[in-house]
Amino acid sequence: MRHLVRAAVGPVICAGVALGLMAAWVSSGGAGTITVTKVPRITVTLAAIPMHSLHPGPPHAHQPNAPCYLTIRNLSDTSDVLTGLNSPVARRVILTGHPAAGSVGGAGPVVTGVAIPAHSTVRLTPSGDDAVLIGCPLLLAGQQVPLVLTFRHAGRVMIEATVTIPGAP
CA end-to-end span of the chain, whole Å? Predict the structure, then answer.
């Protein structure tokens, strides 16, 4: 029995020293840190702002209100609400709801939010809910317009919308 204890002492001491060194290495930050990757709750694609006209006028001219069309996808298990948008190029941005039945070419009423159900895609389109940039300067085809979308649960999502020529998607 004495020989067995003597044979085990060496490996036990080595294991203790190795464990102590590894613990010191981890506590000093040498082993790195655990990074939690946040999965996006909301994605926004196909952001477009159509030009008002192919002949925008003089360079100092202001564009009439510019509609903004987007595709918003909620990847989470929880419904969310788009509560607002803003852009540094516009005085303000409003959300409008579906146009009234029978209205021709008119915008819908101003709304305070657009529901984005869980695991679904919502499109802001000319015939449904959309966003309107008010008080923006002349926008030219191909220009990138920064937008910040604010969601009740997902927070802020920053994107760039491309200015498109009239009639383009």
Answer: 85
Do both 19 and 47 map to the same domain?
no
Give the contacts of 143 (CB within 8 A, at least 6 positions apart).
Answer: 162, 163
Contact between 129 and 83 under an 8 Å Cβ cutoff? The reply is: no
Residue 51 to residue 138: CA distance in whole angstroms: 9
Euclidean distance between CA atoms 117 and 128, whole angstroms: 16
Please name the residue ranges forming H helices in the chain. 2-27
Domain range for 69 is 42-164
* 152 in the same domain as 78: yes
* Total-model pTM: 0.69
169 is a domain residue: no
* 95 in a structural domain: yes
List pLDDT tens digits, range 37-93. Answer: 555 789 999 899 988 766 556 666 666 788 999 999 999 999 999 999 999 999 999
List of E strands, the chain = 42-50, 66-74, 80-86, 92-96, 110-111, 114-116, 120-124, 130-134, 144-151, 155-164
Could you tell me how far CA 30 lies from the centroid of its own chain? 34
